[in-house]
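Posting this for the archive.
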Amino acid sequence: MFCALFLALICPLNASSQNQQSVLMIIAQNNFRDEELFTPKEFFESKGVKVTVACSSKRPAIGMFGRTVTPDITINEIDIKKYDALILVGGIGATQYYNDKRVHNLAKSAYNSKKIVAAICLAPVTLANAGLLRGKKATVFNTASRFIIRGGAKYEEKSVVVDGRIITANGPAAADEFARTIYSALTGNK
């Protein structure tokens, strides 16, 4: 009797932890945009979403405004199957991934595995360079619109744009809406 009661109490906990949503946020080693990481990260965590931060190194990464974060894993350690969404964080440091084939391949793998792929500020350029924005509606920080257009995107001058499983945002002022839009896509809740 005790064992049955114990199992009944434990099994639902295991089931819910197995169903916990998980997102991967990739940041630049230097000059990621602070609020584009921390606003979504804190929002997701408040909703029970597991957040993993990845970078080119496990050394503390420094934001444009001086906030630091120690990445959980490096880009080379990423197993995309573990995540429900891949998010590329912007800031001027995001340019380090524009032509990074590892990040391109991760984004394509995530998209081909039916996961959400999102990018904010300058980071949508990386998605465009990976070929993921071809024929898709997208936004980006206004100074970089030509780069996503060149990559085949249908540029929209909006704060957040959703096209299927691809979500893009144009900068730090959109960080909260970006987070809420990703969460809605993850959970099916508006």
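The domain at 21-187 is CATH 3.40.50.880 (Rossmann fold). The chain is about 35% helix and 20% strand.
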